[in-house]
Amino acid sequence: MKYMKKSFSKMVPYHSKLITDGIILNANEAPYNPPLEIIELSKEEMNNVDYNRYPDMDEVLLNEAIAKCYKIDPANISCGVGSDELLDVCFRAVLEKDDIALGFTPSFSMYQVFAELVGAKFIGVKGDDNYLFNVDDMINKIKEINPKLVVICSPNNPTGQYFSEKDVRRIIESTNALVLLDLAYIDFAEKDYCKISLEYDNVISFKTFSKAMALPSIRCGYCISNKDNIDMINAVKAPYSLSTFSQILAKNAISNFDLYKDKINEIKKERQRLFKELKNLGFVVFNSEANFIYTLMDEKYYQELLNNKIYIRRFDNLHYRITVGSQTENNMLLEVLRCAVQK
Description:
alpha/beta
């Protein structure tokens, strides 16, 4: 990396190895495919695509479908290559060298990267010994350092903590900074409050098709905010970033979101069962309203899972994140851990 500028020299690439064999519980993916009706409908539309033409860079049909789902104006929506691209765009559009972005930690590791890419500084507000974040700590830190940007992930990745709408409003109303609400996992939580971003001029909500809607392969996300913030995002976002095929699949998924509800409820039930069983086995586990569970375990259990081709996310020798899989996948994970504990 001899051409990389010095300020980036310590950056480590975000990487998730492609795994095609075994039980894959390391990337917070859905254990199910999108409903067949959505796939078939999309195939029909793809037969009429002009392959020699660029995609619609205004994502008109997709934005209209999202707007209809939430009963909002399409002008309040922008789409991108995953919600990651849109978050990155906001960091680049708002932050200048030496500006401060504030968030909780541990959280999605790319927030710090997005800040560092523009020469800004990311400061993390830590949780307590049980990895629970305190909203008052965040508000006090906001008053202390006056950040230019605040990012809140709810439910938080990787800990699973869900912030109530009331607490999120408290954070928003404590600052004039731009507040980014990363709601990638909120379809698995108690309530989706993404539309509160239309009530404040300093808030943008971000959602994705990668989690509850089981479409990470199409790399599509969207954000909701007032027109001024959407215009800012569209001004900075790369042109033609979202392919025609991604737009078609995403449009049909959001238009038929009711078809996902039973699967989402299954994930919630399995999450509770997995939490209870892991706790009974003696592991330290943390309450989650996402499609994963954060846990502490000895590395020997992680190695035992690897030996059985069961893949979970390892952060270090103690901290792990387990995606909630299908009932069969979860049973196999629990059986391997049960045997390992009894050895």
